[in-house]
Input
Amino acid sequence: MNKEQIIFLDEIDSSNLSPLRKSLIHEDTAKLNIIIGDGRSATDCALIGNRFEWKPLIWMMYQQDRIKKLDTLKIILIESIMPEHVKNEIRNMFKNVNVKFFDLLLPGYHHILLESQSMARQYQDHKRDNVLYFSAGIMRLPRFVLVHWLQKKQAQNFGHPLLSDTDIQTFTHQLSRLCKKDFSDYENVERRFFGNCDIFTYWQKHRDILLKTKISVVSAQPFFDYLESFYCEKFLHSVACKTLPFFIGNKNDNENVKDLGFKPYVGFDYSSESIDNFVERWQKLLDDNSHFLLQQEHASEIMEKNREIIQYNFDVLVSTDWKKKAYEKISMVSGPTREFLKELFFENDKIVFKNPPTR
Output
């Protein structure tokens, strides 16, 4: 048994991860490379009981007997970073296996960095009359909490889709397991800035709003403390338009921008990130920073406080060779996995959108 195998969980149907199905790990595999990217159905989180669980970790638990027979297990993240407490949980699960972690971060979304870089190079100064801007094409749990909060505060310039009855039931059920707050007064109405359009058309139109806004609320795919540094166009477009981003979703998003070469922003109160309960964390985060998000005077003050950082991060976005940096990250991985990742992200040496991001 000396075979090396690659499993790209993003492309695996969730039903194939079931413990009732045949193992995805071949009998003669000695070295297993598990590649994990964005939060698709096989790699996102699911509510089990009163907490969220990360599906890749559940799958590894189901496959313990098989994985313990391996010589080497490599876990490769292509657009995020795994916190040490999750790595330790995996190490403890497979104590006699050589477990290696690769937090590559850039390959999975370097195409968005390039697109945002192009947006930044078209930058033009505008008067910023809008305090806040947020728009969601797809609702996620922190966004549901955020929109509910914005509704109650009668905020302006936030957009979101009309949810189905099933979506409403799902979010309210999840929240009922996580907290005691009542969300039954959520106003399920459609608030769209540009109607229904494809993501690339949306990007072109929302750029004009970002240029006229002081604070952009950034809420990406939530990974419920299993992963960090999962950034998307919501943050990178803010950098490109010199709009001040306010993060709500994963822990340490503001601090972790350093991993991309940016400087963390200052002035917002992120102390509530120490709270374990997600909903309480998001709610307090919003309450602690409500004056910045809702009041013109305070929004202007914090933007002025970040003026040099905003310009610095803009310059980093414009001047960095993101394709080269992503390629260098892939080169950290050896063997067939490196070639797999090169083919996945660098077809014919051109950057391609394997899967366009969702809003």
